[in-house]
Amino acid sequence: MSALTPILRTRSGTLSPLFTALRPTVQCRNANLIRRPKRPYLLDQIIILSDGSTYKQLTTSPKGIIRSTKDIRNNPLWNPSIKEFGDVEEDEAGRLRRFRERFGMGFESETEEGAEDLESLLVVSGTEAPKKK
């Protein structure tokens, strides 16, 4: 049966043209069911990290190569010993700049309002207050 033949067939033989629109039909498919594989197809993918190192992994993603700009090599949380990550604020999208233009830099003041209260609480509790730089 070709793909162009109709799926619906009549139950009875030929009827008069008056009843052809009203005759009951039954759905008929002669195609075999093709089962999907139980596991997805896995493809090779090469990941290029920010420092240039690469590794290969199997994945279902059709993309063959992925270049990472933010990963474990340049993240301060993964590398706390690297000092160059200490005071750097990455502002790739410009959000920090827009925030500072709108609200100013008052939230980053060196003298905190509750610092004196914190020192007095630490003295009362018997622990040492943090030393100022």
TrEMBL record:
User: Domain Ribosomal protein bL31m N-terminal, which positions?
Assistant: 36-81
Q: Which UniProt keywords apply?
A: Ribonucleoprotein, Ribosomal protein
GO BP annotation list: mitochondrial translation
CC per GO annotation: mitochondrial large ribosomal subunit
**MF terms in GO:** structural constituent of ribosome
Region (Disordered), start-end ranges: 110-133
In which domain of life is the source organism classified?
Eukaryota
Provide ranges: composition bias, Acidic residues. Answer: 110-119
Among PANTHER family, the record links this protein to: 54S RIBOSOMAL PROTEIN L36, MITOCHONDRIAL, LARGE RIBOSOMAL SUBUNIT PROTEIN BL31M
Protein's recorded name: Similar to 54S ribosomal protein L36, mitochondrial acc. no. P36531
Q: Which organism is it from?
A: Pyronema omphalodes (strain CBS 100304) (Pyronema confluens)
